[in-house]
Fold 30S ribosomal protein S1.
Amino acid sequence: MNEFEDLLNSVSEVNPGDVVTAEVLTVDNDQANVVIEGTGVEGVLTLRELTNDRDADINDFVKTGDTVEVLVLRQVVGKDTDTVTFLVSKKRLEARKAWDKLVGREGEVVTVKGTRAVKGGLSVEFEGLRGFTPASMIDTRFVRNTEKFVGQEFEAKIKEVVPAENRFILSRREVIEEKAAAARKEVFSKLEEGAIVKGKVARLTSFGAFIDLGGVDGLVHVTELSHERNVSPKSVVSVGEEVEVKVLSIDEEAGRVSLSLKATTPGPWDGVEQKLAARDVVEGKVKRLTDFGAFVEVLPGIDGLVHISQISHKRVENPKDVLSVGQEVNVKVLEVNAAAERVSLSIKALEERPAQAENEEKRQSRPRRPKREAKRDYELPETQTGFSMADLFGDIEL
């Protein structure tokens, strides 16, 4: 009886909620048997009370002879014996300490680890404490599949801490946005209109390519991708490709940068005088037709105009009546104006002029004499000849 009373007295020294130090006696079957120092009372520390990872090996956490600080959870009395033990937890003690550390730290950025994809977001762990990051706060764009973040460590901002409700909310998105804002500010401070900068193709759209300049995405409009007309962005660049671009304009307030890729590459008009001259005869392809003529590509990226009057010696009402897009034609160069990026061409200059057209042209080119008025003789009738002053003024009284 005395021994049992001593046992009860020692047990009374241990209460649920106490933080105690215990020595590991044995480790077996995902649980460790411990003895609480200064009491002689035994306790049980299970794998579940060591870590949230249920697939972990308990031997990686505790070994026989180790001393651990644990939280007393509740008393357990054996059914068939008079032994009294306590269920203890190392994990919950660490969580309590973590809560104490978190109070008043809203707004701070901490490193957490994604542990499990849950409904509406991602469960994370910080110093043994379980937190939650809503799907809308994981990235700058809504994330539907949060599974890819499980096992990853990342920075997140503490948004809300309510220990009484075990409420711990964090935002990864705000960390990303703040870093992006700082990077944008630095990039804009270095950008200048007209400068040539390096970047990486971030994404492609139907209207152009977005280039990552190191925190700021600039747009190369489809018209600034190539010297060729009507090109597709994916036919010029690819995602991940490093390129050199020229800064056309900067709008820091709106966060927009306009870029040009074609401005960094030689244009088709560079040195065109050495490639093309008046009176040259070249082969070209009809690229497009208009009401006033046809544009014929004579060099890569250089289209010359065959005016409707230079298509044929015969009268042409509409260029579509005699030419078609894609048709190969021989043309004669009439004029090359590199400054204005204009080439004048002629098809009829290479064709034999029909006699009728030649005569008509000669007739039209012959200067016309001004019409001479017919000579008119004005003669007075005989009855009006030989009149005297008396005949004119005879009725006037003096």
